[in-house]
């Protein structure tokens, strides 16, 4: 079984990708309707699905969720931590409560979920843990604030350390760093998608399924010797250095002038 959160966008994309590949998926969300809707789609594919409503920022609820999956399905092979919350507040205006709200959702939740699945994965001879972090964890966020950036950087630290701790048990622990993902399940006007694509080196917007495909790779035997890494899935935005057309133009002109000089 694969456990993960957030059927609204990325979570749903990940869950459906896993189901298409033959996984039974336990779908968790704090919104019961969303969890049940995604679970119904998975059952329609002929796979088992379990809809769970748990607040993963609370350890007791995480323990109950994991215990239920193990009781009904016998164990957990794959954990996908997909949970996020960001608030666009400057540090100078941020209260301790607002800091904690974001950090507990983005960093405590993956910690609780990772900790809860370790015993079952050990007993099954291995497993896969995949956490959805963010490019904010490596750089900064344009959308929210320092609490989100710090928490997502923490997820990357947790991933590295846990990969070391769990390696001998054949448990691979990796992260995915998206940026600017568009939900495949909420219609976005084509002109808006086109405008977004023009700012991305590969000229394609990252969709929910793209994150699902990356998670699928990290959960498969194809990545058996990959652990402790973060995979950037963001169309090359981290290598962008301004306007592409201007970049090409300057270099073409430079070569042309050299040829003339000769």
Layout of helices and strands:
Elements: E1 2-5, H1 10-20, E2 25-28, H2 32-44, E3 49-52, H3 59-73, E4 78-81, H4 96-123, E5 127-132, H5 146-166, E6 171-178, H6 190-197, H7 208-219, E7 230-233, H8 244-261
Parallel strand pairs: 1-2, 1-4, 2-3, 4-5, 5-6, 6-7
Helix pairs in contact: 1-7, 3-4, 4-5
Task: Looking at this protein, list some descriptive labels.
disordered N terminus; alpha/beta; globular; 8 helices; seven-stranded parallel β-sheet; 262 residues
* Approximate strand percentage: 5-15%
- Overall morphology: globular
Strand order across the largest sheet: 3-2-1-4-5-6-7
Largest sheet: 7 strands, parallel
Q: What is the number of helices?
A: 8
Q: Give the proportion of residues in helices.
A: 40-55%
Measured on Cα atoms, how large is the radius of gyration? 20 Å
Strand and helix order = EHEHEHEHEHEHHEH
The strand count comes to 7
Mean pLDDT across all residues, rounded?
94
Low-confidence stretches: 1-8
Distance between the termini: 67 Å
- The secondary-structure class comes to alpha/beta
Report on this structure.
By secondary structure, this protein is α/β, with parallel strands linked by helices. The protein has eight helices and seven strands, in the order βαβαβαβαβαβααβα. It has a seven-stranded parallel beta sheet, sandwiched between helices. α1 packs across α7, α3 (59-73) packs parallel to α4 and α4 runs parallel beside α5 (146-166). Residues 1-8 have low confidence and may be disordered.
């Amino acid at each position: 079984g694969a456990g993960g959160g957030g059927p609204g966008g990325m979570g749903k994309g990940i869950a459906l990708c896993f189901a298409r590949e033959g996984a039974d998926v336990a779908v968790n969300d704090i919104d019961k309707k969303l969890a049940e809707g995604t679970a119904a789609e998975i059952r329609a594919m002929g796979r088992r699905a379990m809809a769970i409503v748990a607040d993963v920022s609370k350890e007791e609820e995480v323990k109950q969720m994991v215990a239920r999956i193990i009781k009904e399905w016998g164990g957990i092979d794959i954990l996908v931590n997909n949970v996020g919350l960001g608030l666009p507040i400057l540090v100078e205006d941020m209260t301790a409560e607002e800091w904690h709200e974001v950090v507990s959702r983005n960093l405590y939740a993956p910690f609780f979920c990772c900790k809860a699945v370790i015993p079952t994965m050990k007993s099954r001879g291995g497993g896969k843990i995949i956490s959805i972090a963010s490019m904010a964890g490596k750089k900064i966020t344009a959308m929210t604030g320092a609490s989100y950036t710090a928490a997502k950087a923490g997820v990357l630290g947790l991933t590295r350390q846990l990969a070391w701790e769990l390696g001998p048990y054949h448990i691979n622990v990796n992260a995915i760093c998206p940026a600017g993902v568009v939900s495949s399940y909420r219609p976005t006007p084509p002109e808006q998608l086109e405008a977004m694509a023009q700012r991305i080196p590969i000229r394609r917007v990252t969709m929910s399924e793209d994150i699902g495909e990356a998670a699928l790779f990290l959960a498969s035997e194809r990545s058996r010797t990959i652990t402790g890494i973060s995979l950037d899935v963001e169309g090359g935005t981290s290598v962008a250095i301004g306007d592409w057309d201007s970049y090409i133009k300057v270099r073409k002109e430079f070569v042309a002038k050299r040829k003339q000089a000769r």
